[in-house]
Batch of 3 targets.
Target 1
Amino acid sequence: MFSYRKKTLILEIVMILVTLAMLSPFYFLVTTSLKPDKEVLTSSTLAPPKHLTLNNFSTLLAPSSGASSNILHGLLNSVIITVGSILLLVVAGSPAAYVLTRSTSRWSTRTYYLVLIAILLPTQLGVVPLYVEARNLGLVGSPVGLIVVYGGTLMPLSVFLYSGFFRRLPRDYEEAATVDGASRSRVFLRIVFPLMGPATGTVAILTGLIVWNDFFTALIFLNGSGHQTLPVVMYNYVGSLVSQWNLIFAVVIISMVPLLAFYFFAQKKFIQGYAGGLKG
C-alpha cells in the first residue's frame, strides 16, 4: 500500500521546481511578446506585462505589413514541406521496415545494420555531394526537392522506429490472412499497417519536429528561391529587428503554434509509441 512519506514530499517539491525551471523560458517568451515597445525596455524580464497588448502579433500578420507576406509564406512552405516529408517517410518507411523485419535472408539483416549506421552518421558529411546531385536532378530551389532530400536523410530513422514495432507484433493475424489467400501487400495494408498507429504517430512527430525546426538544410537547398521555410524567414527577419525583442518573441511563438497544435492532436499515439503499445 502506498504511504505518503517525507521523502515523497521532497521528491514532489524537487519535481515542481524542475518543472518551473523548464517552463521559465516559455514564460519569458510569452510575457515579452505581450508587452509594448516602451515597457520591454523599461520593465524587468521577470515582470508580467502591465499593459497587455496583441499589437506585436497584429503588426507581424497585418496584410499591409511586408513582414506579413514573408512570415505567412514561410509558414505555408514549412507546412507543405513538413507534411510532404512525413507522408513520404510513412509511405516508404513502413513497408521497407516490414520487409526487413519479416524477411529471414541474410541481406535483410545486413541492410538493417546499414540503416543503423546511417542513423549514426552526421547528415552534414554528405551535404556537398547531395547538393551536387540534387542540382543535377533539378531538385534545388523547390519544395518537392527538399521533401525528397528530407525523405532520404530521415528514412533510416523511420525504418528503425517502424522495425522496433514490427518485431513485437505477433504474426498470428498475418498467417491467418495468408492462409485465406491474401497477398503479402494486402496483409500489410489491411492488417499490419492499421496496427501501427502508435509507430506512425511517433515517426510523424519526431521527423516532423526535425523538419519543421531545420535551418541548415533549408538554407542550403532553397537558397535564392521564393520558397524559404519559416526558420530561414525568421532568421532574416530577426536580423532586421535588432533589439525589438517583443516582435522577435512574437515571431517565435507564431512558429511554435502549428507544432504545438500537431502534438496536441497526436500526443496519444506519440505516448503509445514510446511505451511500445499496440492498442488504439
Target 2
Amino acid sequence: MDDPSKSSKTRRIILFPLPFQGHINPMIQLANILHSKGFTISIIHTHFNSPDPSKYPHLTFHFIPVGLSEDQASIHDILRALHLLNTECIGPSRECLRKLLATHDDIQCMITDAMMYCSKDVVEDLGIHRIVLRTSSVCSFLAFATLPLLQEKGYFSDHHNNLESRRDDPVPELPPLRVKDIPSIQRPNPNDALKIIRNMVQGTKTASGLILNTFQELEEPNLDYLCQHFRMPTFLIGPFHKFFSAASSSLLTQDRSAISWLDTQKPDSVLYVSFGSLAAMDEDHVTEVAWGLANSMQPFLWVVRPGLVQGSEWLESLPNEFLEITSKRGYIVKWAPQQEVLSHPAVGGFWTHSGWNSVLESICEGVPMICSSFFSDQTVNSRYINDVWKLGIKLECGLKREEIESAIRKILMLDREGQEIRERALCLKVKIQVSLKTDGFSSQSLNALSDLISSFQSSCV
C-alpha cells in the first residue's frame, strides 16, 4: 500500500453508500483502500443503519436526516426501501454535498453505490465527477442489466412465467441461468423491480467509471460482455476485504465464542452455516434446515440471526429434539466474525445464502460452498458457483432435508465430487493472492483507479 503521508492526501473523495450491511461493508473497505492510497475520505450517510464513526477516525462522516422505519426497511419489501431511499435522499445529500464543496477545494469526485441511482441527480450542475461502485459479481450485474430485454421477450408475463412448469428451463439470453435463477422474476409486480433496475443501469452508464468488488481470474469470460454494454473505465479491484477487514463495520454484535468452539474441533470437519444479515425464512423451512444438519451427522456452527425465522425471537422455532440430538456437535450463535470463522482450520465447508460478500470471503479462504439463495443477485451467484466455477453445490430443490444432508456429506466427507470442489477452491485462493500482489491484476486496477481520480479537477461551488 502507498504511504498516506504523501502530498496526495489533500485530494478528497466523497463516498455515498446504500445503507444496508451488505453494501456498507464493501464501501467502508473501499474507503480504507483509497485512504491508504493517499486520499482524504468523507462519507455521506443516512441516519438509518449508520456506522459508528469512532471506529474510523481516519474517515469523516456527514449524516443526513433520512431514515426508514422498521416496516419500511423490511426485507419483505426491499423494493419499497430502495425507492424511498432514492426519493428521500436527493435533497439532503445534495445540500450536504453543496456544503462540502463550499468548504473544501480538494474534492476530486464522488463514489456512490450503484443502487443509490439518485446520486445522478445529486451531482447534477455541481460540476463533480461521479464513479459508481457495484457491490456484486460481474455475472449478476450483467443479469440485472439484461432484465429489461427479458421483459420484452415475455419472461415476466403470466403466459411465460409459469414457474412450476418452466422453472428449470434454460435462459438462452443469460447462460447458464435457468428461469428460476432470474432475479426478481417471482415478484407479483415485476414492473416496480424493473423500473429500479433500469434506473440503476442508466445511472451507472452516465458515470465516469465503474468499480466492482471482484477479480479478473474468476470472471474474465464476462469482462468483454461487460465492456460492450458499459463503455467506461472499469476497475476490478477485489476482493476488497483482503486489503482491510470488514469486521469493524458489522452492524450486528459478533459472538466470539464461535471461535473458541471451533478451536475444539478437528481440521476441515465443521460446516459453517449463515444466511446473511437480511434473509428470512418460515418455520417449515428452518425445520428442514435443522433436520438436514442433524441427519448429516457432521459438526456445524450455525448463525441463527434474530429475525431469521419469521415470527420468532431466536431459537424457539427449532425442534427441541434437534437441539438435544446435536448439542455435542453443533453450536448456535446470533452472529459470528465471519472472515475469522472461514479462515479457521476447523471449517471445511460454508452453507451460504450466496450473497456476494460471503461468496468472496469463502473463495478467498478456499472453503467449498453449499448454496441457497433468497433474493436479488443470490440466485445468479449460486448458479455460477455450481455450474461455472464449480466451487460448491447448489440446493436445486430449495430447503429439503434430504438434499441438505446429501450436500453436507459430499462437502465434508469428501467423496470424489467434494474433493474436486475443494481442490478448485484452494487453487483459486492462490490466484487471488497473486492478483493482489504489486504486479497482479487487482493491484494494477487499483493503481489505474487512483490515477483516474487524480486526473479529475478538484470541484468547488
Target 3
Amino acid sequence: MKRYSYKKVDAFTSGKSMGNPAAYIVTGKDKLTDNEYLKIGKEHAGFVSEVVFCSDSKVADCKLTYYSSECEVDFCGHGTIATMYELIKGNESWRDRDKISIETNKKGVLTVYNNLKSEDSIYITAPKALFFNCNISKDRIAQALNISSDDISDKYDIDLIDAGLRTLIVPINSLDKEITIYPDEKYLKQFVLDNDIDTILIYSKQCSQPDYFAHTRVFAPKFGYLEDPATGSGNSAFANYLLKHNLWDGSPISVEQGGDNIIFNSVKLKTNGLEVLFGGKATVRIEGVYLL
C-alpha cells in the first residue's frame, strides 16, 4: 500500500465564505494509471469538485493532473489555486520565489505568481483563450437555464470562450435574478453535452458590494455537479470576454461569485502584458495521508 500526502483545501475564500473545495494528492515520482485517477475522483464525489494530482515534471517545477468524479478535466482553476497556494506556503525553497512554473496535463506550462507576502494570494496565468462562434439561440439558452429569455440581457453579448474550459457566457439583467437561478442538473447536462460546452457562466454587472466589478456563477453539470461556487477557468473566460467587448481595461479587479445559498466567494483578475491572470487565497480544511 502506498502513502501520499493529502489535503482538502477550499479555494477563493474571502472572509467567512467557504470557497470551492478541491483535494490534492502529491504523488511525486509515481505515475498513476487513468483508472486509478478516476477511482480516486469517484471516491470524492459530493466531497470536492475536483481532485488534483501533483507529480514531478521534467519541464516545470511540478505537474498537475485534474479529475472530477466523472472524468479527467482539461484544466481546473480553483484546484490549481488550492494546490499551489498550499504547496508554496509549505515549501521553503518556493516561498521566496516570485514565480513557479507548473506543467498541466492538457494545457501546457503555466506560471504561478507568488503574491503571498503582499496580498496573501497567488495568481495563475490562464491558458491562452480560444474564441468560438456561438450559434445557440437566446431562447434555447433560457430554456436550459429554466428562466425566461427576457431575463437574459440584450445590452451585453452571449459568447463562447475557452480559457481552460469551453465556457458559454450569458449576461443576466439583474443581480436579484442572477443569484436565484437554479437549473435542473440533468436537463442542463444534456444541453452542454449536445452543444460541446464544458461550463456555463452567467453574470450580472450589479454586485452586492461596491468594491466588486461583477457577479458571476458557473454551472458545470458535465463534471458531476450542478454549480461551481468559485472558478478560475470560468472567470478567466469571463476576463477574456470583458477584454474582447471593451468592458474592462485589464487593471486589477475582483469578482464575487455564488448563488443566494452561500456567502459569496472572491476571485481576482488582472492582466500581465497580453496574459490574463486569475488569483485568490485558499483555506486548508483537512490534512492527512491518502492510502492507495
